[in-house]
Structure formats: structure tokens, C-alpha cells
Amino acid sequence: MSISANMKQQFFKAADAALSDQALQQRPVVNIEVETFQQILAPIEDLLDSDPVYGQYEIGIDHQIEELRKMCLEAQAAHTTRDTCTKQRRSELLNVLQSVLENIQETIDDNSQFIQVDFGDLFALSDLTDVIYEAGMTHGEFLNHNSASQALFATAKNIDEAQKRLWLPAAPKMQEEKPALGQEFNNDHDASNDPVYNHHNVA
Question: Which has the minimum average pLDDT: 2-11, 61-70, 191-200?
């Protein structure tokens, strides 16, 4: 038996063993905090809050990601393409968003603080942000939906940033304390009464 034939035989044996081993067929999952998805989908939430219909209700992250998928689908229908690679990546994005949506719906039912996301879906989501950016451009340039366009751009950016943080929630931003109205004037007035205060001559 030739070396190549032997290697091929070993490959098929390994493949058969993998198919019969249930443990090897299970795809790895990652626990992602719900807060991470809340931060990612914040632009979509803001968009829905401004809607006269949706704004009356509290929209959960499952509805937000469903809206994100719907917006991407609308953009793809409005701006079709014959490019095979683009079609494939568009379909992949819709499939990934659907899979993540199903994971979120299961997690919400369990009232868990974490969402179990398929590792492959998580990797694909961060790899497909360019398709979300493309959908944002379509909403802005072809559909004249500027608010939807900006929401898609911001969501894609949030996904990229979350991936850089290894999908951990962003730390809360420390807001700089601004002086109260008139405080700067009062501080300057107090300083002018100080003996060592230097008065500035105005020409």
C-alpha cells in the first residue's frame, strides 16, 4: 500500500470515529455576559426607542438583534449583487444573527446573566462586521434611512470593540466633573480678592 493510500485510509478511519463519538460532535460554546450584548446593541435600542410604535414598549435584546437582522436583510434586498463571495458573506451574517438570536432567547427564558454562544458564531460575528457596515451604507445611500445607517455603523463598531475586549463588558466611563454654571466666574472673583492674584491687562 502506498503512503498516500495509507494516509487516506487513516483519515477516513478518524472521520468515522469522529462521527460515532458524540463528544467530538459538540461544538464549543462560550459564556458571554448579557451586559456585553446590551452594550453592542445599544444603538439598535436607541433606534427602536425613537420609533413611535416600538418606543411605547420595553424592547429586550432578543428583539434588538432580531431588528438588526431585519435591517441587514432589508439592505441586502435593496442592494443586490451577483458577486458570489458577497452573497455568501451576507448569508453567513443572517445565519449567525439567527443562531445568536436563538441562543439569546433560550438564555432569557432561564433568566441567566450569561448567554451561551457557539464559539464559531462568535468568531464569525466579529469577522462579518464589514457586512453590517455595508448594510449601513445601503440604508444611508439607497434607502435614505440615515438613523438606521448610523445605528448599523455604531453596532458594527461595538462588535469590533467587544471582540478586542475578549467579549467582556466595557468598563463604565468616568465622566469628568464640570463646574456648575457661574462657578468659574466665582472662582475668578475670589482669586481677584487674593493679594497675590495677578490681574491681566486688557489692551
Answer: 191-200
Q: Lowest mean pLDDT: which of 63-72, 85-94, 190-199?
A: 190-199
β-pair type (29-33, 114-118) = antiparallel
Whole-angstrom distance, CA of residue 86 vs CA of residue 131: 8
C-alpha cell at 163: 471582540
Give the integer Cα–Cα distance in Å for 69 and 125.
12
Could you read off the pLDDT of 127-184 as tens digits, one per residue? Answer: 999 999 999 999 999 999 999 999 999 999 999 999 999 999 998 875 545 555 455 4
- Distances from the Cα of 148 to the Cα of 43, 56, 66, 196, angstroms: 9, 19, 14, 57
H-assigned helices in the chain: 3-20, 22-25, 34-40, 42-49, 61-78, 84-109, 119-127, 129-141, 146-164, 183-192
All three cell numbers of 198, joined, read: 495677578
pTM over 0.85: no
Cα distances from 198 to residues 48, 87, 184, 187, in angstroms, run: 55, 69, 16, 14
* 3-state class (DSSP) for residue 95: helix
Distance of CA 47 to the CA centre of its chain: 15
**Phi, psi angle pair for 10, to nearest 5°:** -65, -35
What's the pLDDT at 157?
A: 98
